[in-house]
Specification:
Elements (H helix, E strand, L loop, with lengths): L1 H8 L5 H34 L3 H11 L2 H28 L2
Helix pairs in contact: 1-2, 2-3, 2-4
Amino acid sequence: MSIGASIVANGGRNVESWLLLAGGCAILFVADALREVEEASRELAVSTGHDLRETRPDVMASRKPSRIIIGLVLALLAVALAFSWPAISVLVYR
């Protein structure tokens, strides 16, 4: 992510840098959402006396797991496109 951000900050106009930056941001979003789930799971486990393995699925189901899955898919797609963009651009702009 830092490489894409530095190229974009230096006036880079190539698509790969923007895709790396977007993919990195999506990965950070997913990591933050999963951190929130983990913290809430721990709090629920402590307050109820249940095992963390029991509370984690409940908390995950109560949060919107679709946004985490969508974020992960977008991150993987952006990073994959960033690394394959040179080959794609050769095919498209012949």
